[in-house]
Amino acid sequence: MLAGTGVSPGAGYGPAHVLAGEIPEPDKEARHDGDAAAERARAERAVEEVAADLEARGARAGGEAEEVLGAQALMARDPSLAVEVGELIERGVAAPRAVFDAFGKYRDLLAAAGGYLAERVADLDDIRDRVIAVLTGLPMPGVPASAAEPFVLVAKDLAPADTALLSKDVVAAFVTEQGGPTSHTAILARSMGVPAVVGCAGATAIAPGTPVLVDGASGQVLLAPDPARVAEARAAEEARRAVLSAATGPGATADGHPVPLLANIGGPRDLESALANGAEGVGLYRTEFLFLDRETAPSGSEQEEAYRAVFEAFPEGRVVVRTLDSGADKPLAFLPPPEEEPNPALGERGLRMFRRYPEIMTAQLGALARAATGVSAKVQVMAPMVATVEEAEWFADACRTAGLDGAGIMIEVPSAALRAVDLIRAVDFFSIGTNDLTQYALAADRQVSAVAGLQDPWHPAVLDLIAMAASAASAAGKGCGVCGEAAADPVLACVLVGMGVTSLSMGAPALPWVRAALSRHTLAQCRDAAAAARSATSAQAAKAAARAELPGLEALAF
């Protein structure tokens, strides 16, 4: 048995297809024939061919894959890379080697940055290898498009271009040696509904064709499992699917306590999945995807069109829009970079960036107000990274000035949770971002793999902060939702409801799992589970204590 990090739930079984065929490093001494202009043009054509292919693959795949591959194409066309390649060619270096060295320089910069940026190294390596393949005539790296039976795809890491056009009919599961919960393998696997395990040491040593059983929840990877174990896993998967199918309708506990189940989306492209999985609305509309990877800010009309498309998809439903959350690992090319930030997660991001550039804020809030005019959806707007009462009051006033009702804030900073009684007076609702709240509460950067073990929302300290925010909102007669990854865990979802959370928002594929878990337990059971979890002294103990209070979750085990 091998073990990694489970990032997409479910069980997958099939023969291992180990992705190999890496493009070899070009000769360090390779020189061109002296015509630098022709060699530079050859390199430029190869880069553009790869970028265009990535965009075409994204267009065919749609959804999150289109956004991911579009961003990768932009990386390929980065002018700084083109300049670096050109300078090397001018010095006589052959195009393949020039590409390898130029990309290597930027690769090192990303790797040194750590976290989310470091996880983009695999994307840059993929672009590099594809360009070199075009220049040298080598076969393009890739994944089999079809097979006699679904296979388990095993790799050191997977590039978005390899996975974007695959489907669960072809791939039973993904297993990679590298990557983390925010890697593109994890993102695309969850959007596809395919089990996945990342960070699995020794995975590429699996002999091709070896039968592999993958548990995308626990992170276990069993090699050549006993037939009885496979039959057991398949029976468990069938039982799980039966439970999921049986739970329909709006989210609610077994005794009828309503818990609206909402979707986290990045734009109109995600609506199909949200609606297909029974989302009752949107609990987190990540508007930054409109702003990233572009040289100029989106126009007011472009923003208005995107917002209205989402509002109209949920007539009478609730749509919560998060205002631009930039900074840290999400820089904007059209804004000057902040001064040196040794720890960007503690620097200018979220509301802090919004206040620094009021013209961006005014344009976005104005577009939201226009888009909300005449629609029946209940539109609410919230600000990220609010730490003080003054910030909450400032944002609520800005929303009112723009003509927007329903201003809220995200609880992501411990100070906001600790003083939630004061902050709730300034706004209409809270939405807890458990990813950031956990990293700040435990001083564990969620982009640094070395401290990934601390990045666990089950930690009792995090649960206490959530309970404080929910209690403050309840006492004021206002709502408190959760839109972080914690909401997607069926067991933790029950605990959150037991602590007074009023709505849950998550990636669309997780909605059926959470709906089923809630439907099997009463509100009293959820409260007992919450109390048991908060009485524990570690994340592991909290989860075990909660599960003991929530019988019947075996089919939905994460």
TrEMBL record:
One of its GO terms (cellular component) is cytoplasm. It is an enzyme of class 2 (transferase). This is Phosphoenolpyruvate-protein phosphotransferase. Residues 149-219 form the PEP-utilising enzyme mobile domain. Belongs to the PEP-utilizing enzyme family. Residues 250-520 form the PEP-utilising enzyme C-terminal domain. GO terms for molecular function: kinase activity; metal ion binding; phosphoenolpyruvate-protein phosphotransferase activity. Its EC number is 2.7.3.9. General (non sugar-specific) component of the phosphoenolpyruvate-dependent sugar phosphotransferase system (sugar PTS). This major carbohydrate active-transport system catalyzes the phosphorylation of incoming sugar substrates concomitantly with their translocation across the cell membrane. Enzyme I transfers the phosphoryl group from phosphoenolpyruvate (PEP) to the phosphoryl carrier protein (HPr). Phosphoenolpyruvate binds at R286, R322, N435, D436, R446. The active site is at H184 (tele-phosphohistidine intermediate), C483 (proton donor). Mg(2+) binds at E412, D436. GO terms for biological process: phosphoenolpyruvate-dependent sugar phosphotransferase system. It catalyses: L-histidyl-[protein] + phosphoenolpyruvate = N(pros)-phospho-L-histidyl-[protein] + pyruvate. Its cofactor is Mg(2+). PROSITE patterns: PEP_ENZYMES_2, PEP_ENZYMES_PHOS_SITE. The keyword Ligase does not apply. The gene is ptsP. Keywords: Cytoplasm, Kinase, Magnesium, Metal-binding, Phosphotransferase system, Pyruvate, Sugar transport, Transferase, Transport. Residues 1-20 are annotated as: Disordered. Its main location: cytoplasm. Residues 4-120 form the Phosphotransferase system enzyme I N-terminal domain. It is found in: Cytoplasm.
